[in-house]
Amino acid sequence: MLPETLYKCLENDCIVAIATADVDGHPHLVNTWNKYVMVTKDDELLIPCAGYRKTESNIKSNPYVEITIGSPEVKGKKYLGTGFLLTGTAEFQSEGPLFERMHSVRKFCNRVMVFTPETCKQMV
Q1: What span, in angstroms and rounded, lies between the C-alpha atoms of 85 and 98?
Q2: Which of 12, 22, 47, 59 gets the highest tally of CB atoms within 10 A of its CB?
Q3: pTM (2 d.p.)
Q4: What is the DSSP letter of 42?
Q5: Which domains, from first to last, does the chain contain?
């Protein structure tokens, strides 16, 4: 499901934005770096977390998440620079194989956010 261009974006330094909403519908946004994101063979995105307490709280009541990933260094539809909007659901894990996989390379994480994309749209 995930296009090769998205994988190329993850190889470059840039910011990933993660949007959630609380029970009242108020948005909340956090960021990480492209290079911190790992992709499983099932196209799940693994995002290491040390903070993200509000994000985790929001996901417990509403697991719907939107994520943007991009890079100015990867050719887009016409020009240099591209970005993607991914929508799907997420959960937090503090144990198990996905957590262990992330923690083995990102020692700072005490949880991993596991994002399961439903859509992936190239925006630029």
Answers
A1: 23
A2: 47
A3: 0.95
A4: T
A5: 4-122 (2.30.110.10)
